[in-house]
C-alpha cells in the first residue's frame, strides 16, 4: 500500500462521511480509495491535512465522550460511584456503633473550635485546614450512621452524596467546600490559602454540617 493510500485508510477509519480534502491541484474525498497520482507538493499538503483531520477527530471525539459521560452521569445511566467503591472494597458495610458516631462528632466539634481559635489569631490557612477536618469527621459520622465506612475521600464523598445530598438533606456545595479545603490541607498553593473570608466560609460550612450530622444521627 502506498503512503497516500495508507493516509486514505486512516482517514476512512476515523471519519465517517464525505469530507472534502483539497490540495493545491486536486480536490477529493476520503471515500475515494483509488490510487491518486499526486505531486510532491500535493503529498505534502495532503499529509498535513490528514494529520490535522486525525488530530481534530481525536480531540472532538474525546470532548464528545466526556460530554456524553457527564450526560449519562446526570441521568444515572453509568455505574454509581458508591457501588463501584463497594466493589473495590473502599466502602465496607459495618455495624452501626453509636459510640463511634458520637466520637466522630466530638472530634468534629473540637476541630471546629480549634479552627475558630486559629481564625481569631489570624492564622487563616490553619483555620481552613481545621475546618476541613471538622467537615471530615462529620461526614464520617453521617456515613457510619448508615452502616458504611469509606476509605479515602472520593468514596466518602460518594456515600455522602448517595445518602444525604440526593435525599435533599443538604446541598452539594458543602461537598465542594470539603474538596477545595482538602486541597489546601494537602499543601496545594491555591488562591484562598490564607484568606480570612474563605476560612470563615469553611468554618461556617463545618458548623452547618456538624449541626445536620447531630440531627441526622441523634448524637
The count of DSSP E runs of length 2 or more, i.e. the number of strands, is: 4
Q: Which CATH class of the largest domain applies here?
A: Mainly Alpha
- In round numbers, the mean pLDDT is 77
Distance between the termini: 75 Å
As a percent range, the share of helical residues equals 55-70%
Structural class: mainly alpha
Per CATH, what is the topology of the largest domain? Answer: Four Helix Bundle (Hemerythrin (Met), subunit A)
Overall geometry: globular
Profile the largest sheet.
Answer: 2 strands, antiparallel
* Secondary-structure element order, N to C: HEEHHEHHEHHH
**So, CATH architecture of the largest domain?**
Up-down Bundle
Keywords:
two-stranded antiparallel sheet; mainly alpha; 5% strand; 4 strands; 2 domains; Four Helix Bundle (Hemerythrin (Met), subunit A); globular; 68% helix; 8 helices; 219 residues; disordered N terminus
Description:
The protein has 219 residues and is mainly alpha-helical. The protein folds into two domains: 72 residues; 137 residues, Four Helix Bundle (Hemerythrin (Met), subunit A) (Up-down Bundle), CATH 1.20.120.330. It has a two-stranded antiparallel sheet. Strands 3-4 form a two-stranded antiparallel sheet. Strand 1 and strand 2 form a beta hairpin. The longest helix is centred in the first third of the chain and has 35 residues.
Amino acid at each position: 500500500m502506498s503512503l497516500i493510500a495508507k493516509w486514505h485508510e486512516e482517514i476512512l477509519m476515523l471519519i465517517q462521511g464525505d469530507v472534502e480534502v483539497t490540495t493545491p491541484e486536486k480536490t477529493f474525498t476520503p471515500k475515494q480509495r483509488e490510487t491518486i497520482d499526486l505531486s510532491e507538493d500535493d503529498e505534502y499538503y495532503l499529509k498535513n491535512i490528514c494529520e490535522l483531520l486525525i488530530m481534530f477527530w481525536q480531540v472532538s471525539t474525546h470532548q464528545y465522550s466526556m460530554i456524553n459521560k457527564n450526560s449519562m452521569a446526570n441521568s444515572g445511566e453509568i455505574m454509581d460511584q458508591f457501588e463501584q467503591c463497594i466493589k473495590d472494597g473502599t466502602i465496607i458495610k459495618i455495624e452501626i456503633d453509636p459510640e463511634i458516631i458520637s466520637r466522630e462528632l466530638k472530634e468534629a466539634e473540637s476541630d471546629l473550635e480549634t479552627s475558630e481559635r486559629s481564625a481569631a489569631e489570624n492564622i487563616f490557612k490553619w483555620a481552613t485546614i481545621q475546618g476541613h477536618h471538622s467537615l471530615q469527621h462529620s461526614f464520617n459520622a453521617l456515613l457510619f450512621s448508615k452502616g458504611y465506612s469509606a476509605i479515602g475521600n472520593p468514596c466518602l464523598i460518594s456515600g455522602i452524596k448517595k445518602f444525604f445530598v440526593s435525599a435533599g438533606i443538604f446541598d452539594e456545595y458543602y461537598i465542594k467546600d470539603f474538596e477545595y479545603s482538602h486541597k489546601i490541607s494537602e499543601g496545594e498553593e491555591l488562591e484562598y490559602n490564607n484568606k480570612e473570608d474563605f476560612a470563615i466560609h469553611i468554618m461556617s460550612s463545618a458548623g452547618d454540617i456538624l449541626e445536620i450530622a447531630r440531627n441526622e444521627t441523634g448524637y
